[in-house]
Records
---
Amino acid sequence: MTPSAPATTQNGSAHGFFAQVNRMFDAAAAHTDHLEGILHQIRACDGIVRFEFPIKRDDGSIDVVQAYRAEHSHHKKPTKGGIRYAPNVNVDEVMALAALMSYKCAIVDVPFGGAKGGVCIDARQYSAAELERITRRYTFELIRKNFIGPGVDVPAPDYGTGSREMAWIMDTYNQMTDDDLNGLASVTGKPVGQGGVRGRTEATGRGVYYGVREACSYARDMERMGLDAGMAGKTVVIQGLGNVGYHTARIMQDEGDAVIVGIAEIEGAIYDPDGLDVDAVVEHRRTTGSILDFPGARNIAESAKALELPCDVLVPAALEGVITEENASNIQAKIIGEAANGPVTAQADQMLRERGVLLIPDVYLNAGGVTVSYFEWLRNLSHVRHGRMSRRFEERNAERILRAVDELTAEHFDNELLDSLIERIGFGASEQDLVNSGLEDTMAFAYDEIRIIREEKGVDMRTAAFISAINKIAKSYADMGIFP
Ligand code: NAD
């Protein structure tokens, strides 16, 4: 059914970011048979606060800061989404990003509605003490407006914020609500010592790896592009060696046996068809201040040209809008893994699809961060580290099984073999093991769901991902008995 509501926002223009997200939504909704009223409800932004507050600068002057928090969908509570500190944050942007969070959470079965917060500042212009005052005051305002809480709305880091800001938020929340036993779960992305979970830092990159690996596991899909199944041996170019790009590249290389042939950063790009050692490149950049002149690699002065290098998999992991109608026809990669948010423009998307390139959409592929945030929230609510109750038991159990097998076999293992088997097999899962395993399962399962929709409906992966989200959110409403 084609939705009849126009792709406009309550507060934005028909050309704004929120309207763009709604256009993607509408394209997917056209392949479903949900009632227009349900589609309208899913698309709508359920709640938004906009406020201003004064903060005292270190020099004694006063700045008035504008801030927002949008809760896009209350079909599941709490809502969840990052807080960004950026000078151009606006109401349209937070609504759009909150909507994407709703769809992202639904796609990977993380039981949250979507939200996003924004504080209109250039964080680099403020001292740490000033940022702390801003963060605490922002949190105070969210508490007063009931836009934060373990069962209400749970922020996380985004552009311009990190674990330090999350620790300030948690501390402010705890001070103001000192009878809330679950205060730790009011925010995720905290330092491990403050209730954070192991594996959160690398979660988005690790999720990108699992998603691309799952795509490569389908021999039929790979055959269509003239590729062999599997991640091993695939040549990869990565744009951006930050949090997401670095971890994606490192894990693809170390765990997937992929060959990282190109890396692009702000200062330029490097290419070596025989493969670059990711950690060595990071070390080279740390010592020389640049990835350029890496031993054995060819320099590419214009960084964006790296997107056009010959490779099987291209992973833009830096900025939005880097693949456009200008460079789409020069892209040689067969698979594009959208690690960054919105790296491919709508026109480029169409051009690439017409050439048979497999685009793995951002709304699915970079969901590793929110997935592991969910594990952090669960850890905080259970007040126990994942694996704490079972690790030693699993270890002993595996040892008992190995010893029993040894006793049952006519020819006993020699002691050395038995000890080495116990060492290799007889261990219990650590928190990191459990987080990685949960993330792997989540990414693989969601990919397979989206792929089935793609095959059934004859659509691209992005549309299929949105269809998956719409169907799941519509089902939540139906299960609540709110809609038929
Ligand atoms: P980051 O700041 O850690 O890394 C970005 C890297 O890109 C930096 O090293 C920067 O120098 C580099 N870069 C900037 N401009 C470039 C250019 N023109 N060419 C090449 N490199 C350039 O950021 P991040 O957290 O890794 O996020 C990257 C992208 O992934 C963003 O789009 C972000 O929204 C998205 N994302 C991040 C997360 C997360 O958990 N961090 C989750 C979901 C989506």
---
Amino acid sequence: MKPGFEAELNQTYAAIRKSLKTSPRGYEWRRQQLLALKLLLVENEKSINDALWADFHKGAFEAAATEQGIVISEIDFVLENLETWMEPISVSTPLFNQIGTSEIRHDPFGVTLVIGAWNYPINLLLAPVVGALSGGNAVILKPSEISANVAKLIGELIPKYLDKNLIAVVQGGPDETEILLKLKFDLIFFTGSGKVGTIVAEKAAKSLTPTILELGGKSPALVLADADIKVTAKRLVWGKFMNAGQTCVAPDYLLVQPSVKKELLSEMIACIQEFYGEQIQENKDYCRIINERNFDRLVGLLEGSKILFGGKSDRASRFISPTLLESKPESKAMSEEIFGPILPILEISELSQMIEFVNERPKPLALYVFGHDLGNIDRVLEETSSGGVSVNDVIMHMASPNLPFGGVGASGMGNYHGEYSFRAFTHEKSVLKKSTLIDVPLRYAPYTDSKIKWIKRLI
Ligand code: NAD
């Protein structure tokens, strides 16, 4: 840890708390900050792309589509709607509160903390910041130390573009974050593993700090016999091997009905070859594993499953080829979230067995089902619980600004994106405004029998 880290952090935090008291954070401030954040992304596209490449060979297309692009479209969507969202919402007032009016206001929380993960180091750090700013909050950003080049760049750029009085970047790993979590925040937004999410939630609980946890888990994909296998294969391969499988909502494992298993496998292999060519290691669109620890963990997960395709790896360049496995429930690949380019495939005959398989495990962040029978799709939707679902697709539900994104149970709590980000970063405050013109004596003691009769009628 850098000498003097804690003292410097305390100073930054105290300065932000002080500024919060005097800085107006109304619509104009929020709009300016969001525009400045957009400018940061646009003007620094090349240095951001270079940092993403240096961290794990993320190519320009994926950077545009899944990093800067997502944050920019979030900003645009918020800017189109923010003034409306900020308006107090009038609601009706019951008879017993007449003469009066009722409304819901959206209050900023105050000083918020956003802790990011390394796998989409721009998107997962800055999309929550869009929410924090739209809600009128001060924010401390803690990028993941694992995507070190992006973290360094973010640390340089944020103070150049955003309001230094209310927005700061703090760098560091577990030790620094532990110190950071000693501070009293008004809201913590964490993206990462369930293990660290638990640490964050425990620390936050000590000061009753509201916490949003965006976690991971094993997201299943169910392929039913009546699925369009060609399109299914394409979408699965795209969603699984993007970012080399290091995506929280990537399909983690496949459950497939026996009659379509062979065709699905051969279509998926054809797609992998079409997308990435024969020399995948040379392909500039195929990412590397983020570090050696994760590389070793992933190679270990191959044990005990039959390799149907791929399985090649090179530790020096942290390369693992797109890999399809034939696995069993007790295989190592089924023991933890994969978070890499390895896809276990399990054959299951009946839809009810697939549903049972999913329900026996922790609630996933995403669930995918491919098929056309609407009765089957409805059964899956009704009988399983997951953060979100795409039917006949993967990942795309999280790209819609009109849908909330978040987990349930072990995959997280709270959600964001679009208006849900604004809601996540604001407190819904109930306001009742009463007139003093009429003051009905009914509620005041002494409580006579006639008052009891009246209260029963009114409530
Ligand atoms: P991680 O939990 O290891 O790290 C996340 C953040 O926590 C980092 O900023 C890190 O510095 C910090 N941290 C690590 N150890 C800590 C400790 N002991 N105390 C305090 N802070 C600590 O997660 P990761 O490896 O960056 O990301 C992978 C996990 O995140 C996967 O489980 C994945 O599914 C999940 N994820 C979820 C989402 C989502 O939106 N739901 C998105 C991306 C990743």
